[in-house]
Specification:
With 273 residues, the chain is mainly beta. The protein has one helix and 14 strands, in the order αββββββββββββββ. It has a domain of 163 residues: Porin (Beta Barrel).
Length: 273
Amino acid sequence: MKKLVLALAAVAAFTVPAVAADMAAKAPLRAAPVAYAPSWTGCWISGGGGYGISRTNRDSRDAVTGAINVLNATSGADGWLATGGVGCDYQFGGRWVVGAFADGTWSDINGDHAWRVFGPGEAFVGRAKQDWSWAAGARIGYLVSPSFLTYFNAGFTQAHTEAYNLQRIVAPFDVANLRVPGQTFDGFFIGSGFEYQLDFLPGLFVKTEGRAAWYDRKDSRLGCTVTAAPNCGATAVGADPFGNIDSRKLVTYTAKTELVYRFNWGGPVVAKY
């Protein structure tokens, strides 16, 4: 009996190492991969187009007596626009982005503006056009996902309206020999929009934004285009034959879509989404 037990023990001693040697080695444990997302910190350029509408509120008065001729007359305009901009952003706190930017806009926002002038007692009309504007400001945004940003912005802006000629609304419906001077308006804007990454090119984004701009009121005087009848037979070119002061206040609303290229896109930071 003792011999049998010793024999079995010897067989087991030689068998266990052999079986262990034949077993597959256990794969080593690996750390879970760290999620990465590109950083929004860096600078960019943009370009695109859109559509704008504007409203002009006009008051006019006699320069000598101060009598009001037109009070709160409102006219509108609309048209296309093209825009380009530059800026830089900084990402912080995982999902927040702040930045500064400047952009310029070339536009054809135009519409008819009616005038009623002291002196001849006649009504005139001309086609006004906002041809350019620029803005500089700051924005703050929140990342809905690593490649989708929603934001608000605000800042300072200027807009320019071209000079335009008037013609009579009443018979004989001819030229009035009067010209409304061009003006540059100062104001401020607020806007909001979103920006997201396009898949086919690293660093390329598309941005859509709506913006409203309110401009300070400015006075202007009519001027004669020629020294000739009607209205300017005894008035020098550029001078006002009637002594009218016209006060204009401009509000503009725009919607635009732009392509944005980010120079730094691809620099990894640990994602915290």
